TrEMBL record:
<dbReference type="Pfam" id="PF00025">
    <property type="entry name" value="Arf"/>
</dbReference>
<dbReference type="InterPro" id="IPR006689">
    <property type="entry name" value="Small_GTPase_ARF/SAR"/>
</dbReference>
<comment type="similarity">
    <text>Belongs to the small GTPase superfamily. SAR1 family.</text>
</comment>
<dbReference type="GO" id="GO:0005525">
    <property type="term" value="F:GTP binding"/>
</dbReference>
<keyword id="KW-0813">Transport</keyword>
<keyword id="KW-0653">Protein transport</keyword>
<dbReference type="InterPro" id="IPR006687">
    <property type="entry name" value="Small_GTPase_SAR1"/>
</dbReference>
<keyword id="KW-0333">Golgi apparatus</keyword>
<dbReference type="GO" id="GO:0005783">
    <property type="term" value="C:endoplasmic reticulum"/>
</dbReference>
<keyword id="KW-0547">Nucleotide-binding</keyword>
<keyword id="KW-0256">Endoplasmic reticulum</keyword>
<dbReference type="GO" id="GO:0006886">
    <property type="term" value="P:intracellular protein transport"/>
</dbReference>
<dbReference type="GO" id="GO:0005794">
    <property type="term" value="C:Golgi apparatus"/>
</dbReference>
<keyword id="KW-0342">GTP-binding</keyword>
<dbReference type="GO" id="GO:0003924">
    <property type="term" value="F:GTPase activity"/>
</dbReference>
<dbReference type="GO" id="GO:0016192">
    <property type="term" value="P:vesicle-mediated transport"/>
</dbReference>
<protein>
    <submittedName>
        <fullName>Uncharacterized protein</fullName>
    </submittedName>
</protein>
Length: 136
């Protein structure tokens, strides 16, 4: 299981999954250190409408303006390339890159998409390592 191997990252992070009751966002925004959003990319293209709307709402909400975003997309066998997933989620030209940012200089909040096969933990860990650099 992934979470026990990185317990220090989970404290203070609200994990929002596709079917989570998203109406509680604002209640937790000020208390969070980061947002982890999980997208089930094993579904058909039309299934991306809900995650696209949710992510747009989160990214435009002031409560989340300074939080880093890790977006994990699970696939069967890399069904979608990362660029296509970014397009389907309306995140083209929004991600900040997998290289680490100097936040004071960049004046942006980090946002990155990591695509992983469902049972391959390497890419999940890579995403959480990336995120760990931005959690205070």
């Amino acid at each position: 299981m992934l979470l026990p191997s990185i317990p220090y990252l989970i404290h203070g992070v609200l994990v929002i999954a596709q079917y989570f009751v998203l109406e509680v966002w604002r209640d937790y925004g000020a208390k969070m250190d980061a947002v982890v959003y999980i997208v089930d990319a094993t579904r058909a293209n039309e299934q991306f409408l809900r995650p696209r709307r949710d992510l747009n709402d989160l990214l435009s909400d002031e409560a989340f303006a300074n939080l880093p975003f890790l977006i994990l997309c699970t696939t069967q066998s890399f069904d979608y390339p990362e660029e296509e997933l970014c397009s389907l989620l309306n995140l083209t030209n929004v991600t900040t890159g997998k290289d680490l940012l100097e936040l004071a200089i960049a004046n942006v909040h980090p946002l990155e998409v990591f695509v992983a096969e469902k049972y391959n933990t390497k890419e999940y860990l890579r995403g959480f390592r990336w995120l760990s650099h931005y959690i205070k």
